[in-house]
Specification:
single chain; about 240 residues; alpha+beta; Glutaredoxin; 2 domains; five-stranded mixed beta sheet; two-stranded antiparallel ribbon; 7 helices; 11 strands; about 30% helix
Length: about 240
């Protein structure tokens, strides 16, 4: 193997290992002297909390989750105009949802998606309505074209940092836009309900449907989150038939 090919092979190998949590060597091959450089190849195995091991779990909704109850936290929202708020976007730059050119904007708030390779907050599955952000975003992504048939543009909002949302959006190949509201601007201006876990404030799961910046539908609470997109599609179909939106 030439030095150049060897360099590229190991550059790729360790790039792959770094991104997928492979840290501990399982098998070493004999070392080689290539143009005076001693090279020793190893196969790497994933750690117990690697992306590889957690990917399947994060993408599926566990059984036995508590169903959230309607606590009235969104009773004040229907009929209001969405405030002008500009937030960082996973598509680059920033976005004000009031400027989205679409008949409908499906504005869905969610707490946080799990970071592959990192543990979820302690007791996360026991918080009603908390678990299921990754499955929700996956199913919305799968039905973006169905939403667009009704001229409905889905936009997700979370308090997660834009760096995390962008990485997750890229790795999951999400086509919908996600916005980061780390400073809780929507809570401040529209009183979007929140909850706290591990000293972090997160949005509760809810969906607002906007028409010309007016909130014409509120979904809250939402369960199960991975089936919620079908509720949205059913509402859009019925509203188009009845009200001619």
């Amino acid at each position: 193997m030439s030095y150049d090919k060897c360099f590229h092979f190991f550059h790729y190998s360790f790039h792959y290992a770094e991104n997928y949590g492979y840290t501990e060597p399982a098998l070493s091959l004999p070392q080689h002297n290539i143009h005076g450089v001693i090279v020793k190849a190893v196969f790497l195995v994933p750690t117990c909390n690697s992306e590889y091991n957690m990917d399947e779990n994060l993408g599926e909704l566990p059984n036995g989750l508590s169903i959230p109850e309607n606590d009235g936290a969104c009773d004040h929202i229907l009929g209001k105009m969405i405030p002008t708020i500009t937030l960082p976007s996973t598509k680059g730059g920033s976005l004000d949802v009031c400027n989205v050119d679409s008949r409908f904007v499906v504005l869905y708030f969610f707490p946080m998606m799990g970071i592959l390779g990192k543990s979820l907050p302690v007791g996360w599955d026991n918080i009603p309505g908390a678990r299921g952000c990754t499955p929700q975003n996956i199913t919305i992504n799968e039905h973006v074209d169905d939403l667009l048939k009704y001229s409905a543009t889905p936009i997700g909002i979370s308090t997660q940092p834009i760096v995390e949302l962008s990485k997750l959006s890229e790795s999951r190949e999400f086509s919908q836009t996600l916005l980061s509201d780390v400073n809780l601007k929507f809570n401040e201006k529209l009183d979007i309900p929140t909850f706290q876990v591990e000293n972090k404030t997160m949005y509760k799961r809810l969906t607002l449907i906007l028409n010309e910046s007016k909130i014409i539908k509120v979904f809250y609470p939402i369960f199960p989150p991975d089936k919620h997109v079908f509720e949205i599609l059913e509402w859009l179909k019925n509203s188009s038939d009845k009200h001619g939106y």
